[in-house]
Design brief:
Layout (H helix, E strand, L loop, with lengths): L1 H11 L28 H5 L6 H7 L33 H4 L18 H8 L6 H35 L5 H5 L3 E4 L8 E6 L2 E7 L2 H9 L11 H4 L8 E5 L10 E2 L7 E3 L4 E3 L5 E3 L11 E3 L4 E4 L3
Antiparallel strand pairs: 1-10, 2-3, 3-4, 5-6, 6-7, 7-8, 9-10
């Protein structure tokens, strides 16, 4: 097999005139008188010579056309292998021994005629019933694939839409309206607003007097009680976010040096108005947006 592939297929079919002195085969067969392989840089990239006779005959667009290239030598041309025309060298009976060869298994495209290829190699045309069945299957598969693409697109867009969205209970608690019951002095009520604890602390008369008499110079974060709670009718009720401004702990009501709030984590003392007086906390307890809608109804949220 190795001898056949190297000798018969490579050199036996090559004329001696197509092999140079170094034993190399030319890559092409000359079909015209001036046809040859590219041998230099100029042959491949430089402009070819002009031909005035071709310009006079065909116009200026033909100045690079060489008439010698149109004279095709057909003495060695292999025509289409159709019966009964064509040279005998491409015929099946000249190339294969039909009595000893399995034509379907030993197929070689260089040796078959077009008729034999279409008759024995190509598949038969499907019947109309098969074509209809295949068409229905194609439509069904296309519909399934299109539906899967739509579902995948919808799920991807839904994941992007849901990403970072707040939980529904937080949306409902974004603005809180609640009824505050009657409270005694120094009583504290805790509600949840936007996931945070909020103190509603009723201050006594003594605490109110002390808050008003406290100078701003004694405060770490100077802020008047009237500014923090501007509603004069409900100023006794201090509404504050119950998160220590130091490290986020929850203070204890009615504790500490100033009788307001005390954070046990690191010892921050707040007065009854939620203003920092002693300890590591740098700022007062924040006051959320709030408004008294009536005597006992408090609104907490965006004003």
């Amino acid at each position: 097999m190795f001898r056949k592939s190297c000798t018969t297929l490579a050199f036996a079919a090559t004329p001696v005139r197509h092999i140079d002195v170094w034993g190399r085969q030319l890559e092409m067969t000359s079909l015209t008188a001036k046809d040859k392989a590219v041998q230099s840089y100029a042959d491949e990239y430089f402009r070819p010579p002009t031909h005035s006779d071709m310009v006079a005959k065909h116009g200026p667009m033909a100045k690079y056309a060489d008439a010698e290239f149109t004279k095709v030598d057909t003495t060695e041309e292999v025509k289409l292998n159709t019966y009964p025309d064509g040279t005998p060298y491409g015929r099946i009976e000249m190339s294969q021994h039909l009595e000893t060869k399995n034509l379907a298994n030993d197929y070689n495209a260089a040796f078959w005629s077009e008729d034999f290829f279409r008759k024995n190699i190509l598949l038969d045309k499907a019947s109309e019933s098969n074509e209809d069945r295949r068409r229905v299957i194609d439509y069904a598969m296309n519909c399934v694939g299109f539906a899967m693409c739509i579902v995948a697109l919808r799920m991807s867009l839904a994941s992007i839409w849901y990403f970072g969205s707040p939980r529904l209970k937080y949306v409902y608690l974004a603005n809180l309206e609640l009824e505050v019951p009657d409270m005694r002095d120094k009583q504290n009520m805790t509600v949840t607003w936007r996931g945070k604890p909020v103190f509603i602390y009723k201050r006594s008369e003594g605490q109110m007097t002390t808050l008003l008499e406290t100078p701003m110079s004694a405060l770490k974060d100077p802020e008047a009680d009237e500014v923090r709670f501007p509603d004069a009718d409900h100023r006794k009720h201090a509404v504050m976010i119950a998160i220590c401004t130091h490290l986020g702990c929850i203070p204890i009501p009615n504790e500490g040096v100033y009788g307001g709030f005390f954070c046990p984590c690191h010892g921050s003392h707040y007065d009854a108005g939620g203003r920092i007086r002693m300890g590591p906390a740098p700022l007062n307890l924040p006051v959320p947006g709030n408004k008294w809608l009536s005597e006992n109804v408090l609104y907490i949220g965006k004003l």
